[in-house]
């Protein structure tokens, strides 16, 4: 079952026409720029504004008190000390949020 030469030539012709239409810039540059400008003004900028409003409202929501320290036995299991500092503090230790194995630092 061989493919006829006419069918092969028609396939090549359609590929050539497709490639030529893509290379010719069927869509204008002005149209693409107008679409991206509209997307920027009507989607991106309101999205950034809503994100800023959300962050502002969340920051003024109020301070929460620190949770009571409960020494659960499965927390703070260390087989060897950390290799920095006194070996008891994590690399990004925050004394207001992260307790030591026995208590908060500033209690």
What does this structure look like?
This is Cytochrome c oxidase subunit. One of its GO terms (cellular component) is mitochondrial inner membrane. It is a single chain. By secondary structure, this protein is mainly α. Helices cover 47% and strands 0% of the residues. The chain has helices spanning 5-23, 29-59. The model has no long low-confidence stretch (mean pLDDT 80).
Gist of the model:
The model has no long low-confidence stretch (mean pLDDT 80). The chain has helices spanning 5-23, 29-59.
Topology at a glance:
Elements: H1 5-23, H2 29-59
Radius of gyration: 32 Å
Order of helices and strands: HH
Strand content: under 5%
Q: Main β-sheet: number of strands, strand sense, barrel status?
A: none
The low-pLDDT segments are none
Spatial shape: elongated
Helix proportion range: 40-55%
Q: Whole-Å distance between the termini?
A: 88 Å
Report the count of strand segments.
Answer: 0
Membrane topology: Single-pass membrane protein
Protein name: Cytochrome c oxidase subunit
Family: Belongs to the cytochrome c oxidase subunit 6A family.
Pfam families: COX6A
